Amino acid sequence: MTGAGTKTDVWPLIHTEREALANDLTGLTEERWATPSLCAGLTVREVLAHLTSAATLTPLRWMAGVIRCGWDFDEQVAMRLAEQLGEDGAETLERFRGVVTSTTKPPLPKLAMLGETIVHGEDIRRPLGIRRDHPIPVLTALAEYYQGSDMVVEAKGRIGGLRLEATDGPFTVGSGPLVSGTTVALIMAMTGRAAYLAELDGDGVSILRERVPSRD
């Protein structure tokens, strides 16, 4: 993460986001753990297990899993998620707490790992009615990463021909019909979360809506 001529290690930012998420989820009932997340077909508990699995996969283990699953990446994600789910929500959370300070990752950029933590954290928090005020510099760096990348999740292609402007920070990108909103809402929309489209304004929102499938 860079800015104002400085360079900040991304791992402490990831660790901070993981710890905040773990704290937010402390004390959830089993009924709440079964709440559908913003990830289609997954509960909030399953998304948390997915985050745990990402923090335990070295490039070698990731590749071994891909081969084992016959190069079916979705099947590998499901397999690794199941490994970290545990017997109940409390165990799922305990396993996640065990990787809060992990620096293990699959073959992805560290900013992609930060994105996984923040985006999936919001996939979990929003359905539960939990709010986190992420630091704007962190969100800005993440938005700048996503606007130029389709790795892991399509983002760059989704916002092509649109101008995005944050209302709570310095993030701006592109040209064309305007889409404006908070930085976190822009991130979630550009990564395909239709639930955040209602928080955006501008002539470009209707175009973006066509590119973000509803999961209702």
Task: Report on this structure.
The strands form 2 sheets. The chain has a 3-stranded mixed beta sheet. The protein is globular and about 50 Å long. Helix 3 packs antiparallel against helix 7 (110-128). It has helices spanning 10-24, 30-33, 44-54, 59-68, 73-84, 89-97, 110-128, 136-146, 183-190, 205-211; strands spanning 2-3, 6-7, 163-166, 172-173, 178-181. It is mainly alpha-helical and 216 residues long. The protein is 49% helix and 6% strand. It contains 10 helices and 5 strands; from the N terminus they run E-E-H-H-H-H-H-H-H-H-E-E-E-H-H.
Outline the low-pLDDT stretches.
2-7
- The dominant shape is globular
Termini gap:
35 Å
Number of strands: 5
Annotation field: number of helices: 10
Give the percentage of residues in beta strands.
Answer: 5-15%
**Overall average pLDDT:** 90
Biggest β-sheet description? 3 strands, mixed
Listing every helix as H and every strand as E from the N terminus to the C terminus, the arrangement reads EEHHHHHHHHEEEHH
What would you call the structural class?
mainly alpha
Give the topology:
Elements: E1 2-3, E2 6-7, H1 10-24, H2 30-33, H3 44-54, H4 59-68, H5 73-84, H6 89-97, H7 110-128, H8 136-146, E3 163-166, E4 172-173, E5 178-181, H9 183-190, H10 205-211
Parallel strand pairs: 3-5
Antiparallel strand pairs: 1-2, 3-4
Helix pairs in contact: 1-7, 3-5, 3-6, 3-7, 4-5, 7-8, 8-9
What does this entry show, briefly?
By secondary structure, this protein is mainly α. The chain is 49% helix and 6% strand. The strands form 2 sheets. It has a 3-stranded mixed sheet with strand order 4-3-5. Strands 1-2 form a two-stranded antiparallel sheet.
